[in-house]
Amino acid sequence: MIACSLGAKSREIIFTASATESNNTVLKGIAFANKNKGNHIIISSIEHDCVLNSAKWLQSQGFEIEKLPVDKYGLVNLKDVKKAIRENTILISIIHANNEIGTVEPVKEIGKICRENGIYFHTDAAQSFGKIPIDVNEMNIDLLTASSHKMYGPKGAALLFIREGVKIEPLLHGGGQEFGLRSSTVNIPAIVGFAKAVEICQKEIEKETQRLTKLRDQLIKRVLKKVSASYLNGHPKKRLPNNANFWFKFIEGESIVVALDSYGIASSTGSACSSQKLKPSHVLLSCGLKPSQAHGSLRLSLGRWTKEKDIDYVVEILPKIVKKLRKISPFK
Questions:
Q1: Can you tell me the distance from the alpha carbon of 259 to that of 324, in angstroms, rounded to the nearest whole number?
Q2: How far apart are CA 183 and CA 175, in angstroms?
Q3: Which of 2, 14, 148, 194 has the most other CB atoms within 10 Å of its CB?
Q4: 278-319 tens-digit pLDDT
Q5: Nearest to 257 by CA among 240, 241, 274, 282
Q6: Residues of the chain with CATH 3.40.640.10
Q7: In the predicted model, is pLDDT for residue 276 greater than 80?
């Protein structure tokens, strides 16, 4: 079921416990299996922390890591990708759709560049799988990460697509499960739930994408209109159908999150995985925002149960909260 949804073969899919594990397996596994070919790895500056930290650790082991910049929308420039490639480049890993700002990267084109240069291409599709169509062959992808709970499946299950012929070293050694690439007793109930979630998403993806895109655009348009000195983070069109991310002048995003919560509205200032951190988002800083501006960010995610009345409710409450907080803001 899962392989078919990606245009892959069953033997090219292995199951892991999380997208973090899958991403760690890719970066470290490719690095150590191919170090005789080179030690240069390219990533973007807006990758998820698990990719950034894996890359940082590899750097301490003697590998060269190059981070590509992004424009104000969070998009990687294809010219920068071509320019960064060296003779010793063994892997390029670019996130498919950013988890904070929702920007969708030109993955197919980046994959083509990698294919032409004989370099493995990996994309972290944890946020995009189930929300927008993915075909690993059409998009020139050699390795792909996806997660169950991001598409309403159980927590504790994720996948890693590894194209046949890709040379990769396993992180976990033991009983040789998952074709010898991930030893450990697999979480069968979570995997079955993951497959069911994929099945449901595949049936609904076209209709649901259209519905969410319409609601997302409505939310963005109305918030920007009703709240003065408000701005959209990420690309206005090339973005996930369920993501809206704003920044507001003279105000801290954390205070907006707390205030919205009191009205029953769930939100965050950045990545849900980083919600305990007080540092400004590395993604927003990479897009050119100042730390004070990045601190004023708000992320709103739409989902399967989001209705138009929910958009109406947010648009009614959010401007009042912003106005109230700006009155007492020390930044103004």
A1: 10
A2: 5
A3: 148
A4: 689 999 999 999 998 999 999 999 999 999 999 999 999 999
A5: 274
A6: 2-198
A7: no
* Residue whose pair of structure tokens reads 């070919």 in the numeric block: 37
CB 19 within 8 A of CB 125: no
Instruction: Decide if 300 contacts 244 (C-beta within 8 A).
Output: yes
pLDDT of residue 45: 98
The encoded tokens of residue 275 equal 């919600």
> Residue 41: enclosing H or E segment and its boundaries?
strand 40-44
Q: Are strands 40-44 and 89-93 parallel, antiparallel or unpaired?
A: parallel
Q: Which of 123, 147, 105, 129 is nearest to 42 (CA)?
A: 123
Cα–Cα distance measured from residue 134 to residue 140, given in angstroms and rounded to the nearest whole number: 11
CATH architecture of 205-327: Alpha-Beta Complex (3.90)
Contacts of 220 (CB under 8 A, 6+ apart): 232, 236, 244, 246
In the chain, the N- to C-terminal Cα span, in Å, equals: 54
**Rounded to 5 degrees, what are φ and ψ at 299?**
-110, 125
Query: Could you give the CA distance from residue 246 to residue 170 in angstroms, rounded to a whole number?
Result: 40
Known catalytic residues are 273
In this prediction, residues 158-187 reach a mean pLDDT of: 97
- Into which CATH architecture does domain 2-198 fall? 3-Layer(aba) Sandwich (3.40)
CB of 43 closer than 8 Å to CB of 52:
yes
